[in-house]
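DM between two lab members

TW: hey, do you still have the Putative IclR family transcriptional regulator entry open?
JB: yeah, one sec
JB: this one, 262 aa:
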Amino acid sequence: MTAIETPDRETDYRVPALQRGLTILGMFNARERVLGMQDMAERLGVSTSALYRIVQTLVDMGYLQKAGRNAFELGPQVIADGFAYLASRDIVEVAMPELNALRDRTSLSCHLSIREHTDSLYVYRAFAPQRLTVNIPIGTRLPCHATALGRVLLTALGEAELGQLYQHLRLDDYPPPAPRTLPELQALIAQDRERGWVLHRSDYSTAIATGIRDHAGQVVAAINLSGADAVMDGPDAQGRFLQALFQSAAAISAQLGYVPRA
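TW: and the structure you got?
JB:
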């Protein structure tokens, strides 16, 4: 008795034209920004006439654009769709696993904050259950200029923007090391921006913070490591913790689409 061959259900449901169109888009990369119709056809193992309608459809939809006679490059719709997806990802969703792993590696508490006006709003924490630890609840608001996380968030602003934000606010109600005047704040934030991280001590605890960047390279959030002075003090300890903090910040930023300049 001859067995009757049944088609693979997954294969049977495929749309060859769609598969070819997506494969074409995947051919473009940093090294190959422009491809000819013949190049695409050879890689797919089909004739150029078989690809013409697919390529034309991609051009009409903005996913490809002409770069010469029978040559094409990625179109603006690819960029727009990619950035829209990245922007839709919740910062907490992206940062949570990285901060949990950072806490486990360092045994220190980690916090994530975003800026709302002149406040640093804490939106996530990875709590280290130790006797001496720093535990700031989610939803807490602290003045940006008086915290490590907040100062990092302020580095996203230029000097003029910073001046406009604080022009009607008094700063001398906060104890040192918080800046007490606007020029002092502007000078401090300029130094923080150049350094790329902030260390802040208060109430027998120390926090080090750095920024999270989006696809445009803008600082959109900040993360920190915080713990007792006895744990955080010392150049060796700070250097080790700072390296771990930078690694986590880079991983989160990469998921938001940030690509460091070469």
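TW: got it. The mean pLDDT is 86. Residues 92 and 182 are 32 Å apart (CA to CA).
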